[in-house]
Amino acid sequence: MGVDIPRKIVLYNQSREKVDFKKLKEFVWGNFALKLEIRQNFPANKLSIKDLTLEFAKSRVRDINNPLAKHSPLPLEIANEEHYLKNNKVNPNLIYDALKLLLLFEKLLKVEDPGNCQIVLTDRLLGTFADDSRFHLRSIVCGYPSIISISGIVEAPARPKEFYLIKNRLVLLGLWEQEEDNVRARFKSRFIDFGDKRITEVLKGFISQALFFYFAKNPFCEERACRLFNSHWQEDLIYSQVKTGRFCKKHARSVKNLLIQERMEK
Amino acid sequence: MPKKNIFAKVGEKEVTRAIVATFAKQFQSYVDSDCLIIGAGPSGLMAGMELAKKKVKVFIVERNNYLGGGFWIGGYLMNKLTVREPGQLVFKQLGIPYEQYSKGLYVADGPHACSRLIASACDAGVKFANMTIFDDVVVREDNRVAGAVVNWTPVTALPREITCVDPVALESKLVIDATGHDAAVVRKLGERGLIKVPGFGAMWVERSEDLLVEYTGEAHPGLIVCGMAVTTTFGLPRMGPTFGAMLLSGKKAAETALKILKKKR
Asked: What residues of A are in contact with residue B206 (Cβ under 8 Å)?
């Protein structure tokens, strides 16, 4: 049985993070024989800037302890969203409901060819409420399109426990401001930060996950040494995407089969 | 009897008259102001000072006896205040001595910084009602905020059964909520169903200072929010004891207020 192979991967880059797209294109071509196209702007859409800013403002999570909370955005929130859109610069600390954004991006990209695997790369911080009603930040949310969040890569997988213990102690003492740079430097190798060159390497894994969701509906793997591993810890993320940087045997086979099928179709 | 009379001969009744007369004169004048600020912490003081420097008639209501809020001390009751760049520019502007601790991080003495900020606000022309607690909002057409209802703070500490002391109202063209995490004015609007208040998020010190300044502004017609009240109003991640954002938020609140007042004229 063949699978639904996309014609190409289209990545809408809404992020200001420095990413080596050349490397990403080579990775996608080398592994999946697919073209990775980078686009800076969403296609022309019926949604006006006014509608769009309102939708983004509505998607904000204002109370992470209350999943059912609804709010009407205040004018200042809408004005700030307009500012973010016009300047392509969002604040990476505002949290958005990933499912609401998925619906919004789906609406925005509806006019596009459905034969493409579409990904939105954003600096917005995303999260979802899990079954336990607890809010969880996300690095990737798979859908049509999938959304990959740079802020999520930095903030969603937990940092080493020692980092939080030290941070909490210093915050209580009012010394965090003074010591933050030193503490971050101490843990530099153990978590991904903004401006980190390893982000490109991590993105290879997340693009693979979006692609696997597109054709297999299952983006994740339980094998830690696989690019499809759903990391909950930064150290796991670094291990699966940077230190190992490959697919496990099972998924390597899937990739190979995909290539064969693709060549046959061509 | 003292050997020498150092002080002028003034009786108790004259002292009492001086207090009552001057307080009443000031209070009567400031029953109506351009801008009423609730809360005399760093952001409220900063906003008040900047506005008063531009000849705006500013009245600050403070529930405590002392002004300055948490600006006297830093974390863990240690009286050193830290600000990240460009917060030190406010220290410089106010003539507060400070030193660079590391790249982008500056430290000042709490008592010196706080007293200088209070003095600067007074010098600029701000007037205060301390030991005065915010009780309710005054609203006008289209639910525009147009003042505050206040009472003496001690009244709130007594059982209601024995203290039926009605509050009084102060009118103003604008109100600034600088009440910290309480966001007392915003919450009062929330109780009336005019605004939804989500409460502040989890502690997230790293970058929430930027957000706090970014979201300082008019939250409802006639009401500007600044300082920690911003995090409560907009559901932003809460901050630790950092003061740069308080000072810059106060400045931004003043800029916003000036724009609104200019339009009103």
From this structure: 93, 180
